[in-house]
Amino acid sequence: MADSGKKQIPLRVSPKLYEALASWAEDDFRSLNGQIEYLLTECVRQRKKNGKYVSDEIDLPIELDIS
What percent of the chain has pLDDT over 70? Predict the structure, then answer.
């Protein structure tokens, strides 16, 4: 396998967040890894554009309202 130059990182998420991300990835025809990379890329792009984080409360734990 060729080295793509990408870094690997371990990531732990709650079961609710995992299911939400997996469902979203499926809707967007992406792998879960691809979806996470896409979302992180969009957040970084938005921060560079605005000079601000997406939320002023970015470090607070998120509450998912998933039924």
Answer: 72
pTM: 0.67
In a domain, 38, yes or no: yes
Q: Which of 28, 33, 29 is nearest to 13 (CA)?
A: 33
- Establish if 32 belongs to a structural domain: yes
Quote the pLDDT of residue 44.
85
Structural domain boundaries, residue 27: 15-50
The total number of structural domains that make up the chain: 1
Length of the chain: 67
pLDDT tens by residue, 8-38: 999 999 999 999 999 999 999 999 999 999 9
Distance, in Å, from the CA atom of 10 to the CA atom of 46, rounded to the nearest integer, reads 24
